[in-house]
Amino acid sequence: MTTEKIRVAIVDDQELVRMGLRMMLDPLPDITVVAEASDGHEAVGLTPDDIDVFLMDVRMPGLDGIAATERITANDPAPRVLVLTTFDLDEYAFAALRAGASGFLLKDTRPEDLFGAIRSVHAGDAALAPRVTARMIEQFIDAPAPRDDDDPLLATLTPREREILVAIGEGLTNDELAERFFLSISTVKTHIGRLLQKLGARDRVQLVIHAYEWGLVG
User: Fold this and answer.
1) Is the pLDDT of residue 148 over 80?
2) What is the rounded CA–CA span in Å between residue 58 and residue 149?
């Protein structure tokens, strides 16, 4: 039985970076690089139906990765965008999450983690670099968090859903959620699906952002 490969587009203004990423990805049995772009304008000009996941640099001349991400994820259905950043604390990376990216990684991440992140975002999950998530979000949410008990959306959650939202904000994976709350993976996925629906969130990334903005994590 053959499995369709995950089609990846690499967007980076440095040719050597694009070349290195392609050399890592193309030998994989389930991932193939189908396009490259040197800036956001070129990325937006690619055909989104032919691409499953964009690997998006943030800081590029012309149209940057934030604006490109916003335009690309406006498609319906939209390809996934995985932001690659050089800096531990990069306000542009957080802005890209707000613009619709499904996650971010540092460029010095291990190849195995990059491969796993591509597979995760393609499957509809999020990929957030654990060591920078909390610091970045805390630093670059500039508005004070509202009182969580005053928010009508948060009030729709059950106590268990609220606990899981907090844990997602802490960066726990589905396996870790199942272990913490003594639940099956299928039950964890059901709770996450209900959270996405109730909060009108696109994916797990937005759940993390909600958790920080409401002051549930920090």
Assistant:
1) no
2) 35
d(CA 57, CA 104): 10
pLDDT tens column, 79-133 = 999 998 876 656 666 777 788 888 888 888 889 989 988 998 888 777 776 555 5
CATH number, domain with residue 201:
1.10.10.10
Please give the residue that has the higher pLDDT: either 5 or 144. 5
**Of 90, 109, 139, which residue sits at a domain end?**
139
Residue where a domain stops, chosen among 96, 119, 139: 139
> Is residue 99 classed as helix, strand or coil in its secondary structure?
helix
CA–CA separation, 122 vs 53, rounded Å? 7
Helix (H), strand (E), coil (C) string for the chain = CCCCCEEEEEECCCHHHHHHHHHHHCCCCCEEEEEEECCHHHHHHCCHHHCCEEEEECCCCCCCHHHHHHHHCCCCCCCEEEEEECCCCCHHHHHHHHHCCCEEEECCCCHHHHHHHHHHHHCCCCEECHHHHHHHHHHHCCCCCCCHHHCHHHHCCCHHHHHHHHHHHCCCCHHHHHHHHCCCHHHHHHHHHHHHHHHCCCCHHHHHHHHHHCCCCC
